[in-house]
Amino acid sequence: MTKRIYWENPYLYEMDAIIQEKKIKDNKCYVKLDKTIFYPNMSGGQPGDRGTIDGINVFDTYEENNEIIHVLERNISQLKVKLRIDPSTRFDLMQQHTGQHLLSGVFYNLFNAETIGFHLGEEYATIDITLDEISKDEVDNVEKMCNKIIQSNFKVKSYFVSKELIQSLPVRKPPTVDEDIRIVEIESFDFSPCGGTHVNYTGEIGLIKIKRWEKYKGNIRIEFICGNRALADYSWKSDHLKNMALMLSSKDRDVQSKFEKIYGDKVSLEKEVLSLKNELISLKSIQLLADSKMIKDFNVIDKSFVNETFKDITNLNSFICNNNNNVVNVFTLTSENGSQFIVSKSKDLEINLSQLYKDLSSQITIKGGGNNNTIQGNVSSEKLDELREYVIIWLTKNSH
Q: In sequence order, what are the residues at sequence separation of 6 or more whose Cβ sits closer than 8 angstroms to the Cβ of residue 265?
């Protein structure tokens, strides 16, 4: 059985070990050691350590029959090897995992809410707690209590207990094993069965910051960061806030009110622009209808546009067809995005534009689609005039 040194001393980042078993599979080397400082990946929800064995990168670590398997990127010849793990990664995971115990303990202490899910990611961690809802004030109180315990620098202890002894401990959740039960205790405040790596004192967590919360599968999911992650998060947000304050010629505390005013002005301008666009569309439609051609008993608006947006063309098309009867639009557009077309009719006309698309695509290479009321797509610029002529002839022959 591999001796787990990370339980005895999670601050040990380098040590010697002996290879007890080795095999090669898929050009990777799988190694069992007599002891290790490498934490197995996602054991108990905690990611594994990054590091090397004799300078060879360790791709993965996992548990198998109480052994820890180290997956190396290539073969290793020595039996006595040097293990090294990345100190910053290990300490970061210790901060986040101990922070999770503290956060879960506070939720349990204040609300009797159990933690039923835990995920420790590269950017943030989450816990799922058994609450139907939670207010901002309640979240703030949880955060304040967590950070008071951090500042009080409670001792964090880990030890093994028997199945019988654990009955006397106020554990938040039952263990998943019946023997060699490892307890992580935050100095008489929180007791939790856990096999992860943790700091020795809560002060080393540095800070807990709850970033957001949301309802999730009938419970509440809490997203949080601790320690160096919280400092990095504060740093970039502080820089952004400072830069925005400079742009707005305001103090940091006034940025939100300034932003709210700018955003309000933006919404008002957008409404004004939309109103003017609708007025312009109405004027354009009047002019286009005045210039339309009569085919049998309906009007055809045959118009080529240059350097407009396709969105503006489709808006104009919709306005005309929705507010007029006996009209067919044949619009083409040439812009930096290529050449496009749209053919549409008012709903009172019994013209099958889906059939037009089929017939058109058999004569000219187009990409697009549509329905009985509107067809649209892309076409080469050389074929624009041919497409328009074909559509007009088709409408003349196939309308009733």
A: none
Domain ranges of the chain: 3-85, 90-234, 289-398
Report how far residue 64's alpha carbon sits from residue 139's, in angstroms, rounded to the nearest whole number. Answer: 40
Distance CA 120, CA 227 (A): 14
Task: Assign domain 3-85 to its CATH architecture.
Answer: Beta Barrel (2.40)
- Please write the tens of the pLDDT for every residue from 322-353: 999 999 999 999 988 889 999 999 999 999 99
Give the Cα separation of 79 and 12 in Å (integer): 21
Identify which of 190, 210, 203, 213 has the alpha carbon closest to the alpha carbon of residue 140. 210
Average pLDDT (4-14) is 98
pLDDT digits (tens, 9 = 90+) for 245-290: 999 999 999 999 999 999 999 999 999 999 999 999 999 999 999 9
The CATH topology of domain 90-234 is Threonyl-tRNA Synthetase; Chain A, domain 2 (3.30.980)
Sequence-distant (≥ 6) Cβ neighbours of residue 110 within 8 angstroms: 138, 141, 142, 145
